[in-house]
Amino acid sequence: MCPLPLAAAAVAAPRAPLRLLNRGLAAAMSTAGPLKSVDYEVFGRVQGVCFRMYTEDEARKIGVVGWVKNTSKGTVTGQVQGPEDKVNSMLECSGLI
Q1: Which helix or strand (DSSP H or E) is residue 9 part of?
Q2: Which of 24, 56, 64, 67 is 20 to 30 A off residue 96, Cα-Cα?
Q3: Which keywords annotate this record (predicted)?
Q4: pTM value?
Q5: What is the architecture of the domain spanning 39-94?
């Protein structure tokens, strides 16, 4: 279920690991398919509505890894990594594409 349609734009996000999603990149790399990494920034009402927690839960369900954090601008920025089909699924489910 993907109840949070959000407006987002891809940006060059910092690469420092902050709030890690799932068990690490090794869990996502357990596939023979191509891997994908996407940096994103979400605009709108995303702070104070459990967006980071929702993102972490969805990442676990789908099987991708990454990080997510609030910014001082009132946005949420992050990175998602894993098999291409799973990353695309995560982006669609989260309303990022």
Answers
A1: strand 7-9
A2: 24
A3: Hydrolase
A4: 0.63
A5: 2-Layer Sandwich (3.30)
- Identify the active-site residue in 22, 45, 52, 60: 52
Residue type, 19: R
- The per-residue DSSP string of 12-76 comes to -------EEETT-HHHHT-SSSPEEEEEEEEESS-TTTTHHHHHHHHHHHHT-EEEEEE-TTS-E
Please confirm, yes or no, whether 88 is among the known catalytic residues: no
User: Is 70 among the catalytic positions?
Assistant: yes
| Ranges of each domain in the chain | 39-94
Give 10-residue mean pLDDT values along the chain (97 residues): 39 43 52 84 84 88 92 91 93 77
Q: Which of 53, 59, 56 is nearest to 28 (CA)?
A: 59
